[in-house]
Design a protein that fits this description.
eight-stranded mixed sheet, alpha+beta, six-stranded mixed sheet, about 35% helix, 20 strands, single chain, about 375 residues, 2 domains, D-Amino Acid Oxidase, Chain A, domain 2
């Protein structure tokens, strides 16, 4: 029988929903709570590499994800010149295996809804607009509606600002990286059939990723600034102005940017919890345990891998032991640390205007994550 009978998952993002699906399917009673009022997720698009798709297939949602997203197998590098000249076309490694595409882009809220609906169908009890207000390492929880519960395990999948991580005294807050990113979600030009990256110009990176038959996610990375005082119209105007230096498909993308509600700005942050990610009957996964700038598009993939490995161990063993936690830490910490460090290396090269071996670094990480976690 599983090592746990009842589990609380705090946070309904990729890591939390994935853990809820796998454990509920394995016969564990799962409660999933999220402070947000509904499943909608902040953001525009998401880039999912093959190792993320491998876990999504394990979760039983690959067919839905494939139908909603846009898959591709190459990466383009373009120059920040008046023509947006294509410099190189790189064939990506299919890190999820030969029967999955190298990369798939999709609308982030759509992925969130697919995963939450799957968790409910698997038997997890999902409550939005609910958050814990007290937690002990023994698994005793009090919620903001006054209800209480005692769980064999509490999984904190509640993101960068993880309440769970702080509640059980795990040190390791995300730190600024020095970059910020403008993101938008808009109409896909017919010429955009994969991710292209422009390095140089007024932004460190100008890129886009197709997210469906008619949509793309586009982004511009700059030195981090306090953009909080800008109105929605000012944010739109600022992104359009920065995008003016980029051409090729960017000309059509820029012309389509007319709705301020589609634009958001986020500062890059990063951290890795160096050591066990659990305290007693509480464990943190996903962005609560590690985060990196999206320069390698591995954030969601690493979160999904956390959930997959944790569920595998909990369903395989008949008790939560030190050996179980040692295996979990051994399988997840070195891999997550290497991905985070590689993502940070890319940001350091960019901030220093240094020509690093970007294709070589990307290839090394692709080979790493091609092996199942």
């Amino acid at each position: 029988m599983p090592a746990v009978r009842n589990v609380l998952v705090v946070g309904g993002g990729a890591a939390g929903a994935a853990a809820a699906i796998l454990l509920a399917e394995g016969g564990v009673s799962v409660d999933l709570v999220d402070a947000k009022p509904d499943v909608s997720a902040l953001g525009s698009g998401i880039t999912l590499q093959g190792n993320a798709l491998r876990v999504l297939r394990e979760l039983g949602v690959w067919d839905q994800v494939k139908a909603e997203g846009y898959e591709f197998d190459t990466l383009g590098l373009r120059a920040p010149d008046p023509a947006g000249t294509l410099i190189a076309e790189l064939t990506d490694i299919r890190t999820g295996g030969p029967d999955l595409p190298a990369t798939l882009g999709m609308y982030r809220p759509t992925l969130a809804k697919i995963l939450i609906d799957r968790a409910g169908a698997a038997g997890a009890k999902v409550r939005f607009g609910t958050r814990p207000t007290a937690l002990t390492q023994d698994g005793d929880v009090t919620f903001d509606d006054g209800s209480t519960g005692r769980y064999d395990l509490v999984i904190g999948a509640d993101g960068l600002r993880s309440w769970t991580r702080r509640a059980v005294g795990i040190d390791g807050e995300p730190q600024p990286v020095g970059m910020g990113i403008w993101r938008t979600f808009t109409r896909r030009p017919e010429s955009v059939t994969r991710t292209d990256l422009f390095y140089g110009g007024p932004a460190y990176i100008a890129g886009y990723c197709p997210t469906g038959a008619d949509s793309i996610y586009a982004y511009l990375v700059e030195d981090v600034q306090d953009r909080s005082g800008l109105s929605p119209d000012e944010k739109l105007a600022t992104m359009r102005q920065l995008a003016g230096a980029y051409h090729g498909p960017w000309d059509e993308i820029r012309d389509s940017l007319t709705d301020p509600a589609t634009v958001n700005y986020t500062a890059f942050e990063s951290h890795v919890l160096d050591g066990p990610w659990h305290r007693g009957r509480v464990v943190v996964i996903g962005d609560a345990a590690h985060s990196c700038p999206p320069t390698l598009a591995q954030g969601a993939a690493q979160a999904l891998e956390d959930a997959s490995v944790l569920a595998e161990l909990l369903l395989r063993e008949d008790a939560v032991t030190g050996e179980l936690w040692s295996e979990f830490t051994g399988r997840r910490l070195p891999r997550a640390r290497e991905v985070v460090e590689a993502s940070l290396q890319l940001t350091r090269w960019l901030l220093a205007h240094e020509r690093g071996d970007v294709p070589g670094l990307m290839g090394r990480i692709a080979h790493l994550v091609a092996s199942p976690a």
